[in-house]
Amino acid sequence: MNVTLTVNGVSHTVDVEDRTLLVHLLRDHLGLTATNIGCDTTSCGACTVLLDGESVKSCTVLAASVDGQSVTTLEGLADGERWHRVQEGFRAKHGLQCGFCTPGMVMAAVSLLAENPSPTAAQVREGLEGNLCRCTGYHNIVAAVLEAAEGSVAR
Amino acid sequence: MAESAGHATCSRTVSILGTRVMRVEDPKFLTTGGVYVDDLRDPRLDGAGHVTYVRSVMAHARVTVDVAAASGVPGVLAVVTAADFADLPPPPPPLGFIPPALARPWLANGVVRYVGEPIAAIVTESRYAGEDVAELVSVDYEPLTAVVDPRDAAGDATLLFADHGSNTALAFEAGSLDGLFDDCEVVVTQQITNQRVAPVPLEVRGTACVWEGSGDDARLTFWASTQSPHGARDQIAAALELPPERVHFIAPDVGGGFGAKFGVSIEDLVLAVLSRRLGRPMRWTETRTENMLGMGHGRAQLQTVTIGGTRDGRITAYSLDVLQDSGAYPHFGAVLPFMTQLMATGTYDIARVAVRTKSVVTNTAPVVAYRGAGRPEATAAIERAVDLFAAEIGLDPAEVRRRNLFAKDAFRLTTQVGAAYDSGDYAGALDAVLAAAKYDELRAEQRRRRDSGDPMLLGIGVSNYVEITAGPEAGTEFARINVKPDGSVIVYTGTSPHGQGHATSFAMLAADELGVPLDRITVLHGDTDLVARGGGTGGSRSLQLGGAAVHQGALETVDRARELAGDLFEAAAGDIVLDKARGGFHVAGSPDDVRGWAEVATSADADAGLIVDTDFSATGATFPFGAHVAVVEVDAETGYVRLVSMTTVDDAGPVINPVVVEGQRHGGIAQGVAQALFEEVRYDEDGNPQSTNLTDYAFPSAAELPDFTLVDMATPSPLNPLGVKGIGEAGTIGATPAVQNAVVDAVAHLGVRHIEMPTTPERVWRAIQEASK
Amino acid sequence: MIPAPFDYVRADSADAALAALREHGDDAKLLAGGQSLLPLMKLRLATPGVVVDVSRAADLAYVREDGDVLAIGALTRHCDIVSAEVVTAHAPLLAHAASGVGDRQVRHRGTIGGSVAHADPSADLPTALLALDASYVVRGPAGERTITATEFATGFLETVLAPDELLIEIRVPKATGEAWGYQKFTRRAIDWATVAVAVQARGGGTAISLGNMGSTVLRAASAEAALAGGASAADAAQHADDGTEPAADVTASADYRRHLARVLTKRALAAAGRS
Q1: ipTM confidence
Q2: Which of B416, B436, B699, C131 is most buried when burial is the number of CB atoms within 10 A of its CB?
Q3: Which pLDDT tens digit goes with each residue over B501-520?
Q4: Interface subset of A 30-59, CB within 8 angstroms of C
């Protein structure tokens, strides 16, 4: 079947099997490999992307279901050379190590801050409950998101 | 340019080492994402066959496989079983001293020995077809008795490998049990389960490979998610009975390893054979379920500790008995009790010690290395034992520790079990962490809550730890420093980072000696054609061996450059000075005429520049140490445990980059906490795994953890020029017993003396119920 | 992991969904937000031949007041329930329970109807809706019928819904200004409830429902009766697990679940002002 969707501002029409998961459409059909797959059970959040601006787990969305909708992946987050403040926050606070959870973690944080621009540390922890990281112990991820949130206040 | 050079001059008049340099790795990860095996779009992999494994659903059975239905499906390139590997001997075991009779076959050969063992491999044109076709492979299981409990395995009633004649793979021992506790006023004993846990790197295992050329010239390029590219290359070459140079191994970005990705797995090796036979590139990326079933697990020890001493708190005797569950095919896990034995007494000066260990095979997934690998088990045992001893004599556990620690002036020393500790200040670490955690105030708050009948109980847990990094043998590591004709530098290292930040830290080490700015230095690793040799990253070895090699290589590069500059100046090398601030050489006393790195490197070779290869060899392992304080709140009604705080001293000598080291500590602490509170791989009595995905396996998220409070301390090692020790595993080792001790401490006044890990709400609740009977 | 092959049918309205169900019969499965169904399909524990995707059925996504009742379209997402002012005003228990479903990403996708129809006894929304005396409007070939929350689930992941019926609306009697309590016990924030207890006061009476204390969500009838008979909250809570048969699994034993039901009921009652 054909699925037409906008990814990072570009419209694509892709011929896929009916059962194709959104994450596979992104990775295998469009070559957007930043979005990773870390589990089978909607647990880890590595595949988190924005669907019409809201975070979803792209391993648990059928490609067919998002026909006509708009997807943003990590590759489309920066405005040209200008990084999103969440990307800046992760860099400034060393919020990543092996980098595998990072694309999903960043996109989840972007969505969290869109809905709650000035969260407390506890709200950041609760807000990222759907994203697992094995490297950082989350300490610096929380700091990174708070850094990005504070930035939004400053601007 | 002038401005930035001026800035660099200023900043490089002091050492860059120890400063907070942000990682050079991060921009890629934060914009396009890393390139992990499954992300590879190398044109040589076009048209790759996709491999899917059919795995055993029984723990122990004779199997007959019928692949006919699967083989005939359009798009299926091959379906292979053990019979297709009859012409190849099984790959050599991953470690030399594992008995060959316990080697695992390429694919299950008539008998399966754990749920998840690969029985058949399917190669399909499309990735999606693989799982469909796997359902068409028919496996007939004739059940055998499943040996799941290692105590049953040790009894040898059912043998997993008849040819070996026993389920015992390896055994180690140290010290004598004779009269060990004879003069003790107090003796306490406890059985402890150091439970099986899953490493769970966020990136699962993945492989891609392609053969190029033909006949004896054919060469294999092999990508896999590994911590040790050169070791993996040698493993592949040995399995295929090829000279190593016919294998080109590349570790792309690796999404976490934690010990479990040291080397490559049988599932990786099969691809090399399939690719050769089918004349196609091959790819394999496992699912998380497969990862939970088959990558291997960590820990898995049954321990008995006995500790004895005087009523005033002096520990004089300690024994540790370890029964290691190695899983079905002995891997690193079978050997880890040796490390547990070596670190058995931890930070304590105990006169008499005896350790007995035995590793047995069971019908469960193989036990592999996992963050700490043998040392966390030792620390958990002795730290729990010290708390039990303190409780028995009614002394504060921190005070008991203080009375038994090796003294600061005792180093270097060799322990009763033969570990040669290089340096340490254990009491200093304990005092620092107690002060930072405000230990006395915590105890007062605990008393207040107990006295007032507050159902939210406070628990305070302390651990002292020492561990061994880059051991037990004295290690060696390779580095190449290549100053290019344009004056930029490429550092090649035999370590293979997967999140540890070597590209930043090793560049800092080179920059510090060469006087070349960081942004002109690139660190390369992970490719066996680019890097001559290497030991990879594991056992927290990288900085003290690989970093020391870079440091040594940089010094040798400067020496060689002074000779070259001497030729340029027509002066003796001994009169040449490196001006790091200006990044060039001049004759002593004539600072105006400076020849830069570019000119000097070009004079060595106009194309390649200046190349210096070096191998750093340590004279011994190092022993990082520290002390942790965990604070928990326990809901006395439900048994629910909330981790309130972790305060830690983790002393691994001088810090090259605090950003990276703090990150290693945070991650290590979280994994240690996770073992104490959350995680456990369980099998039922028939050997069926009960936690095969991240819904059932309680991997904690940010919501379950607090911020961590890190206290700095740096005691140098005498065993390398940087004075550094490994930091990768330290946090994990210290955190687990601190948290477990805290949970027990919270309910100790109710009569509870021990709670097994993970200290789940139900376990805590049951412990309270039983103590109140 | 990927689902077994199926044919995809998009149904952007209730009528289109019913037509598709009629056409494909037992082989068809409705897909709403997919946050429970797709994981089961990836693990191949569910293998429908036809997936009827109603996730974009706009006529079923709404929250509105209908006299004394809140009418919630079955395709209303959890995140929209959390933020809907009429829900926080008239059924704060429901808004609170919705805020704890899965994680943020799941709440952006999952729907109230999907959760109700999936009938997992440990799920937040069915537990809360049972205490709220909600009823479910179902449309099928023979027209509409309304089923009470008590009657809806018949077993683990089983309901009275026929294969050709569609859950279209959740009707919640307003509980404006009434006290409530919700206690969900989990090891990790993202986990399904080990046990959950919802308490909703209404006109002097108190409803208590239990999540994950049996194969369906349950009312704690004995505890409710004890309260109605004048027992203290602490004494009534001691009857919370009466007649239940909770499962034993990797997370908890049956005994521990019973204990939790009693403790959580006491706490939920306290939160609802009952002592």
Answers
A1: 0.97
A2: C131
A3: 999 999 999 999 999 999 99
A4: 40-43, 45, 48, 51, 54-57, 59
Q: Where in chain C is the domain with CATH 3.30.465.10?
A: 61-173
CATH number of the domain enclosing B407: 3.30.365.10
CB atoms within 10 A of CB B578: 21
Q: Is the Cβ pair B693, A40 closer than 8 Å?
A: yes
Closest partner residue to A65 (CB to CB) among C6, C53, C79 is C53
Based on the fold, state whether residues B607 and B525 are members of the same structural domain.
Answer: yes
Pair B463, B737: CB distance under 8 Å: yes
Give percent of chain B above pLDDT 90.
Answer: 96
**Which CATH number, 3.40.50.720, 3.40.50.300, 3.50.50.60, 3.30.390.50, labels domain C181-271?**
3.30.390.50
Q: What is the mean pLDDT of the segment spanning B238-249? A: 97
The answer to whether residues A45 and B202 touch, using CB atoms and an 8 Å cutoff, is no
Rounded CA-CA distance B495/B151 in Å is 38
The nearest CA of chain C is from the CA of B689 a distance in Å of 11
Q: Which of C31, C53, C189 faces A129 most closely, judged by CB atoms?
A: C189
Overall pTM > 0.95: yes
Whether C190 and B701 lie within 8 Å, measured CB to CB: yes
Q: Give yes or no: residues A39 and A103 share one domain.
A: no
Nearest CA in chain C to B764: C256
CA distances (Å), B499 to each of A134, B26, B97, B180, B291, in order?
11, 10, 31, 45, 20
Question: In the structure encoding, which two tokens stand for residue C110, read together?
Answer: 């999952």
Over residues B222-237, the mean pLDDT reads 98
- Structural domain count of chain B: 3
The domain defined by C61-173 carries CATH number 3.30.465.10: yes
Given a contact cutoff of 8 angstroms between Cβ atoms, the answer to whether C184 and C96 are in contact is: no
Strands (DSSP E) found in B292-398 = 298-309, 315-325, 352-360
Boundary residue ending a domain (B587, B617, B647): B617
Q: Is the pLDDT of residue A155 over 50?
A: no
Which residue range(s) make up the domain with B600?
475-617
Residue A152 has pLDDT above 80, yes or no: no
Which residues on chain C are in Cβ contact (under 8 Å) with B287? 1
Distance CA A72, CA A55 (A): 9
Same domain? A8 vs A40: yes
The CATH architecture that domain C7-53 belongs to is: 2-Layer Sandwich (3.30)
Tell me if B121 sits within 8 A of B64, measured CB to CB: no
B417 and B340, same domain (yes or no): yes
Which spans in B362-425 are helix H? 375-393, 397-404
Q: Which one of A17, A49, A76 terminates a domain?
A: A76
What average pLDDT does this structure show over B712-726? 97
Closest residue by Cα to residue B504 from B660, B713, B350, B619: B660
pLDDT over 70 percentage in chain B: 98
Task: Please check whether residue B202 touches A, CB under 8 A.
Answer: yes
The reply to whether A8 and A65 lie within a common domain is yes
Residues of B within an 8 Å Cβ radius of C = 128, 131-132, 135, 287-289, 637-638, 640, 678, 682, 690-691, 693, 696, 698, 700-701, 703-704, 760-762, 765-766
* Touching chains, A (3+ CB pairs < 8 A): B, C
Nearest Cα to Cα of residue B737 among B675, B690, B665: B675
A137 to B659: CB separation less than 8 angstroms, yes or no: no
* B127 and B97 co-located in one domain: yes
- Residue B739: beta bridge partners? none
Question: Residue B13's pLDDT band (boundaries 50, 70, 90)?
Answer: low
Number of domains in chain A: 2
Q: Alpha-carbon distance B267 to C242, whole Å?
A: 51
Report residue B3's pLDDT band, with 50, 70 and 90 as the boundaries. very low
Last residue of a domain, one of B563, B593, B617: B617
